[in-house]
Every structure is written in C-alpha cells, then in structure tokens.
From TrEMBL:
This is Amino acid ABC transporter permease. The keyword Mitochondrion does not apply. Keywords: Amino-acid transport, Cell membrane, Membrane, Transmembrane, Transmembrane helix, Transport. Part of the binding-protein-dependent transport system for glutamine; probably responsible for the translocation of the substrate across the membrane. It is a multi-pass membrane protein. GO terms for biological process: amino acid transport. Gene3D superfamilies: MetI-like. One of its GO terms (molecular function) is transmembrane transporter activity. Residues 29-217 form the ABC transmembrane type-1 domain. It comes from the Bacteria. Belongs to the binding-protein-dependent transport system permease family. HisMQ subfamily. The keyword Cell membrane applies.
Amino acid sequence: MPEWLDLLLENFADPDSAARAWPLLRQGVGLTLKLTAVALPLGLLLGLLIGMAYALGGRVTRALLIIYIDLFRAFPVLVLLILVYVGLPFLGLTLPAFAAAVLALVLNNSGYFGEIFRAGLLSIPHGQREAAAALGLSPFRTMRLIILPQALRGIAAPLASNALELVKSTSIASLAALPELLRSARVAQEQTYNPTPLMLAALMYFVLLWPFARLVARLERRMLARGSR
C-alpha cells in the first residue's frame, strides 16, 4: 500500500477511533433528530400562521408581520442563539440549552417559512376569494379550504429546501454545549486524537440530508414542469 494512502486511512478512517467514537456519535445523531423533530413543526406552524395572518390582515398587521419576517431572516441563527441563551438571563429569563436552541431555530426559520407561505398565498388569484365570498364562505374558511391547498402545491419545493437548511442549522446547538452530532464528533476527536470521528459525522450528515436534497430536487422539477405547461 502506498505510504500516502496508509497515512490517509490512518488519520481519516481509523477503525479503532471509529469504534471509540460511535457511542458519542450515536448520541449526537439522536439529539440532532430530536432538535429537528421539535423545531421543524413549530417553525412550519408559526410560518403558516404568519402567512395566513398577512393574507387576511389589514395594513397595520401586514406591516408588523413584514418587520417580523425581515428581522428574523436578517439575524444569523447563531446570533439568535447567543441572544437567547446568553442574553436573556440578564433579563431574568434563563432557558435550558435545548429550549434555547429550539427557540433560536424556530424564530429564524419562521421568518423564512412565513415569507414562503406569504408569497404562496398571495400568488393565488384574488378572484377566487371573491367567488368564495359570493358563495357565503368566511375569509378564514376560504383560506383553509380553497387558497391554502392550491398555494401548497406551488411552495412545496421551497418549504422542503428550507427544512433542509433547518436540519443543517441544528449544528449551532453545540454553542449551548448540547451534544448534537457536530459537538459529539469534536469531543470524540479530542478523545481519540484522530479526525476519523469528524469524517464519520460528515458521512452521517450526508446520510441524513441526502434524501431531503433529492426530495427538493424532485419537487423543483415538478414545479418547472408545471410552469412550462
């Protein structure tokens, strides 16, 4: 075996280091999935409420929602986590690390999800609302039964793409000393004095995110095909 290949395998694919790191990495994957399972539905729900409130609200409501969307999209999620986890205790509110990470992820992503839902709902022709009103449907029922189902078909791809970004953003939880996948890999690397755990973490991220990436690509192709008709 060439010396360079032996050196490469020893440093980035060492079986002993991988075996020692596996319990930590398994714990890290579990926490990453837990963060995603909590933050993603909350971010989607809040984004949906923002989009519907914008579509149904008046001028003042819309202005306030635009400020909210722009504010939390402008803040990097890492900065939000610092403000929530480090800044709030100065105001007498101390959140557990997990709750702080979830709150930062939800606030940041609700801005993106809110903008996606807002654009999708407003893309539906206004005449459909007028027709629904003529049939006696309330604005909320019109939104829920007629406008929202149509909008979802057009925004499925950007929603899935932003969900993919949320999963990747869970790595910021390491700042709050949460043993998610990246932090677990770094701890294992420090214990083994070998970068193999980091390579394993990268591979695990790929396995987790690749199906999301393929789903996004498939939805984007469907949108392009629908738009070309």
